[in-house]
């Protein structure tokens, strides 16, 4: 009888999931993980691109390794494209979670800002 209980305990211990793993899987499934990364990126944006560029741009989303950035004018759309290699390098070495997987940036015009 006690060996059966031991086997059950071993099975439970071997197959137990840690709460952090369960929460991570759920947050990934519902898109919360991506939203949290975007919020962290938005908070760090000025440090990554510089304050001047940050006043005229903002990260919108990250999907499949592509960062989408909204800019305030056609001039900034053109200007920020020149900064792409530098921005990618900073993103890939930043402490913002998930940014190391960003491989490219697309820019969109957002005149609502």
Describe what you observe in this structure.
The chain has 5 helices and 3 strands, in the order ααααββαβ. It has 113 residues and is α+β, with helices and mostly antiparallel strands. β2 (66-71), α5 (74-93) and β3 form a beta-alpha-beta unit. Strands 1-2-3 form a 3-stranded mixed beta sheet. The chain has one domain: GMP Synthetase, Chain A, domain 3, CATH 3.30.300. 60% of the residues lie in helices and 17% in strands. It has helices spanning 2-15, 19-29, 32-49, 51-55, 74-93; strands at residues 57-63, 66-71, 104-109.
Summarize the structure in short.
With 113 residues, the chain is α+β, with helices and mostly antiparallel strands.
Strand content: 15-25%
Q: Let me know the number of strands.
A: 3
Oligomer: single chain
Straight-line N-to-C gap = 70 Å
* pLDDT < 50 stretches: none
Number of helices: 5
What is the topology, as strand order, of the major beta sheet? 1-2-3
Gyration radius from CA atoms, angstroms: 21 Å
The CATH topology label is: GMP Synthetase, Chain A, domain 3
- How are helices and strands ordered from N to C? HHHHEEHE
Structural class: alpha+beta
The second-level CATH architecture is 2-Layer Sandwich
List the main descriptive attributes of the protein structure presented here:
single chain; 113 residues; alpha+beta; GMP Synthetase, Chain A, domain 3; three-stranded mixed sheet; 60% helix
């Amino acid at each position: 009888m006690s060996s059966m209980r031991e086997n059950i305990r071993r099975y439970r211990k071997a197959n137990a999931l840690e709460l952090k793993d369960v929460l991570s899987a759920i947050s990934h499934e519902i898109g919360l993980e991506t939203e949290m990364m975007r919020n962290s990126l938005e908070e760090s944006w000025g440090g990554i691109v510089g304050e001047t560029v940050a006043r005229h741009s903002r990260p919108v989303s990250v999907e499949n390794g592509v960062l989408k950035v909204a800019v305030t004018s056609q001039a900034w759309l053109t200007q920020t494209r020149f900064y792409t290699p530098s921005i990618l390098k900073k993103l890939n070495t930043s402490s913002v979670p998930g940014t190391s997987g960003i491989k490219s940036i697309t820019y969109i015009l957002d005149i609502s800002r």
